[in-house]
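Exam revision sheet. Question 4 asks you to relate a sequence to its structure. Input first:
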Amino acid sequence: MTSTRTRPTRAQTRDRILRAAGEVFISRGYDGASLDQVAAAAGLTKGAVYSSFSGKDELFFALVADRLEQRLAAVADAVDGQRDLQQLFEYAEDGLAALFTTQRDWQLLFIECWARAVRDPERSAEWAGQRRAARAVIAGFVERHAAAAGDPLPVPAEDLAVAAMALSNGLAMEYIADPESVDPGLFARMLKQLVKA
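Answer key, C-alpha cells:
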C-alpha cells in the first residue's frame, strides 16, 4: 500500500509563513528580518513566500493584522463575559497587565507597525479601520452597561474607548522602556478613575 502525499492548501501555507514570520520579526524586528530568514524558518523556499505575499512589507502588515484580529477576538470574548464595570476593571488589572509583562516583543512589533502604517498612504486607511474596530468593541461594552445601570455617560462611549486604548498603548510603551518604574496594574486603576470621572 502506497501513501499519497497531500500538498498543503494555499491557506495552510500562508498560515505556516505567518507563524514563521512571527518568530523572525519578533526576534529581529522589521529592519533586521528578511524573507530568506522567514522562508528558512517556515521550511519553504523564498518563492513559496512570494506566492503568498508580494514582499516584506505585505507580510509584515499581514502578520500584525492577524495578531490584532486574534487579540481583538480575545478582548471581545472577555469583555462580553463581564457582568459589570467592576468585573471589567478586574479583568483589565489581571489580563491586560499580564500582556504588558509577557508580550514585550509583540508590543514592539505593534509599535513598529503603527509607525510604518501611519506614514504609508496605502496602509493608513487600513490601519485606521483596525483601530476603529477595536474601539467599537470597547465603546459597545461601555454603552450596554451604562444603559443597563441607568447611568448616562458624561462623554460619548467612543471617546472613552479612544482614551482607554491610548492609555493602554501608552503605558505599554512606558513599561517597555522602564519596567522597573511602571506598574502594569496602573492601567486598570486609571481606567476606573477615567470612567468614574
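Marking note for examiners. The chain has two domains: 1-53, 61-196.
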